[in-house]
Amino acid sequence: MDKMKNGAVLRNGTQRTAKEVFEKYAIVIAFLALLLVVSILCSSFLTPSNLILVLNQTSINGILAVGITYVLITAGIDISIGSVVGLSGVISAMVVKAGAPLPVGFLCGILAGTLVGVIIGILVTKGKLAPYIVTLGFLTIIRGAALLIAGGRPISSLGDAYGWIGNHNVFGVIPCPVIIFLIVVVIGHIILAQIGRASCRERG
């Protein structure tokens, strides 16, 4: 009888553990399954050159995903992120085209995005407004501001230095955006880990 009870407990524990593992790593499992299916359908998918190309194409979205993670884990949402990136890029390009050094242009773009984020954050936290409504409104406002600043035309003739960060390959193999993405991931992981440890200490 005891053996039967122990066996039932063991089975229940195993099932519970498997369920917990699946729930925790569901996205990873789905991603690996997708890789498997695509690699079967296309034999050249898992080649080094194609993987680097995929990483390069998704690096910008990856960088944005790291930032939006902080919003999502606090039960928030930000649908204006694409427009903010567009505005930051327009301001950065306009500043560089006006004759400012490249670092100044990048800094201005980052500050513009930061300022918009601060305004949205204040409206949500202090104004008690719904994040979806605020960011939906800013999506349209910021997109219009970017078009207005750029005059509705593409900004070109920024020089080779400006394009270097998007087109250069480190060691002739790894694109710069991929390197930046990996650095951002590491920094984001460290910050989240520190926040997690601080939260655990506060809970005792």
Tell me what the structure shows:
The structure is a single chain. The chain has eight helices and two strands, in the order αααααααββα. The protein is globular. With 204 residues, the protein is mainly alpha-helical. Helix 4 (81-97) packs antiparallel against helix 5 (102-125) and helix 4 (81-97) packs parallel to helix 6 (131-150). A hairpin with a 3-residue loop joins strand 1 (169-170) and strand 2. 79% of the residues lie in helices and 2% in strands. It has helices at 2-24, 26-41, 48-72, 81-97, 102-125, 131-150, 160-167, 176-203, and strands at 169-170, 174-175. A two-stranded antiparallel ribbon has the order 1-2. The protein starts with a helix and ends with a helix. The longest helix has 28 residues, at 176-203.
